[in-house]
Amino acid sequence: QVQLVESGGGSVQSGGSLRLSCAASGYTYNQAWFRRTPGKEREGVAQIDHYSSTTYADSVKGRFTISRDYARRSLTLQMNTLNSEDTAIYYCAASTRMHLSEPLRETDFNFWGQGTQVTVAS
User: Fold this and answer.
1) Which 8-state DSSP code applies to residue 29?
2) Residues contacting 21, CB < 8 A, separation 6+
3) Of 87, 55, 66, the residue nearest 19 (C-alpha)
4) Which of 45, 66, 82, 89 lies in disulfide reach of 120, CB 3.0 to 4.6 Å?
């Protein structure tokens, strides 16, 4: 069992930046960030796979950057040029599957953090 703990959420003005972090208690092959807005399904934001390839949702490309440390115990999401549509609860996710079935597929990830709130004021 791998525990994931997110930190770094908060409130920021539109156009600002935030950096989310996720600490993992064990090794996993793939990691990702998802987010959920009230009334909507959880959506994939960014992932970094076993081969260190990254994938981003179209809505965050060029603004968000996902990264991890060599031991895969620390995951980060640098979020720049934030806007009100980025307001959501952000979840760290990790997968013990070596190969993902497709990018940002929620069911590929078997460990989840508790979520951290990001609020962007317009």
Assistant:
1) S
2) 6, 7, 8, 74, 75, 76
3) 66
4) 82
Which among 29, 27, 34, 14 is positioned nearest to 115, based on CA atoms?
A: 34
Instruction: Pull the structure tokens for residue 117.
Output: 């709130």
- Label residue 38 exposed, middle or buried (CB < 10 Å: 0-12, 13-18, 19+): exposed
Determine the 3-state secondary structure of 59 from DSSP.
coil
Residue 122 has pLDDT above 90, yes or no: no
Model pLDDT for residues 66-120, shown as the tens digit of each residue: 999 988 899 999 999 999 999 999 999 999 999 998 899 999 999 999 999 999 9
How many whole angstroms separate alpha carbon 41 and alpha carbon 6?
20
Alpha helices in the chain (DSSP H): none
Distance CA 120, CA 40 (A): 17
Q: Which pair of tokens denotes residue 93?
A: 């996710």
The structure tokens 């994939």 sit at 44
